[in-house]
């Protein structure tokens, strides 16, 4: 039976597999369509936009994703300590009021962990978030096990990668997206095991290639043309890739060339009975994007190592039986309608910012607690009886089975993952009930601020004095600085200094990734019907899996 989304009024179906999952989890069907549920969960995750603030308990200054918020924010060392008592915020249920109103009041008074890191695992990596096991890293987010990495998101097991997104087990890479096991690559997308390459797309095992697409195990190629070693070196030198103009020319030509080549309809590897995009090593996973190691999952994004999950966004890491959760993970089991709950949680409902908890309902900021509701301790029997009564109370008010209302989220839409997947203008976001935060840059404490276009074209001509300046972004006019570690990297890699603010560079990387919406389209070679992230009006040539593989191999 078709349903009407209470958020956008779109019509949607709830297939039998989802009905079975809802019944197994003991929850009613959702009142929003999959898209609106997805966007709402994405709005729970601000990984990249960080602010200087003070710990509300100790006064210590640190970096946090929380700026102007209604609740106390504690430095992570303090939040995990015994210096405060999460149970002191406990309260009785008011059976005469909607539960969400009471829960929001609790969320607004309980201290929040101010930076999402693994304490004790960061070395010289203060300016990071959603991170652990880093050394000499700066402004990276959603990241683990890296060294000397700068300005990136979703970077894992890398050394010296800068301005990269979704990159794994790579070294000395710059402006690369969705690449794995690459070395000394620049401006590459969806590449595997490539080295010393520039502006490549969907290539595997290539070395010393420029501007190529869909190549396998090739060397000395320029725009898919085979050259000799000597001719390749000559042409590469003529391109002046150490200069701003040379790089701009290459990327423009590569963009035009890629439109002449077939694009794979989605990126999936080692999957069985799956649908989605950028989905790997998974089984029975459908409508999932940017995920790996899933089994029996649906509507998941940015999740790894999870089983039996529906409507689950960001994290995973040995998690199972997850429903309508955002930014929860690390050995989580049976969580429903939760946000930002980390490490060894189980059987939680409507909880936020909890760790090591079990059998809790409507709690915030709890640590290693059990049988609590609204941060109040109950006996096991009292908890079970009160939980049943509370669910009936929520049903009466139309709350049970719904995710947290939008007013629960403390972030602006433009601060979160929602803006990366589905960009909105400020007017559009506010009209849909989301918050918005206009960026405000601190006045840089530098010798001078200059327009970036006044910088020398070649990295060889950039003076050391740039470390004492700020430059203004070519697109947004926002000032930004070049740090020493960054300048050393550009010189080592012979890369021109960037002309855009780090946020603008990130936005442009996200534009190079395909949409997270799936469209009905036909293969441009055989006419087979496919579902792809390339909309039917886009100019790319899109092939189904069989046609793409026959073309490439």
Spans with pLDDT under 50 lasting ≥5 residues? none
Strand share of the residues?
25-35%
- Name the structural class: alpha/beta
Amino-to-carboxy terminus distance: 44 Å
Mean pLDDT: 96
Radius of gyration: 25 Å
Main β-sheet, in a few words?
8 strands, mixed
The count of strands amounts to 31
The total of helices stands at: 12
What general form does the structure show? globular
Across the major sheet, the strand order is: 18-19-20-21-22-23-24-25
Helix content: 10-25%
Textual characterization of the structure:
This protein is an alpha/beta fold and 553 residues long. Among the domains are: 3-42, no CATH class; 151-264, no CATH class; 283-403; 448-500, no CATH class; 519-552, no CATH class. The protein contains twelve helices and 31 strands. An eight-stranded mixed sheet has the order 18-19-20-21-22-23-24-25, with helices on both faces. Strands 7, 8, 9, 10, 11, 12 and 13 form a seven-stranded parallel sheet that branches. The longest helix has 17 residues, at 380-396. The radius of gyration is 25 Å and the shape is globular.
In terms of topology, how is this protein built?
Layout lengths: L2 E2 L6 E2 L3 H10 L8 H9 L8 E4 L6 E4 L8 E2 L1 H4 L19 H9 L4 E2 L8 E2 L4 E8 L2 E10 L2 E13 L2 E4 L2 E4 L2 E4 L26 E4 L8 E4 L2 E2 L2 H11 L4 H15 L3 E3 L3 E5 L3 E11 L1 E42 L3 E4 L9 E4 L8 E4 L8 E4 L2 E2 L2 H17 L20 H5 L4 H6 L16 E4 L17 E4 L6 E2 L3 H10 L8 H11 L6 E4 L6 E4 L8 E3 L1 H8 L1
Name its key features:
single chain, 553 residues, alpha/beta, 8-stranded mixed beta sheet, 7-stranded parallel beta sheet, 31 strands, 21% helix
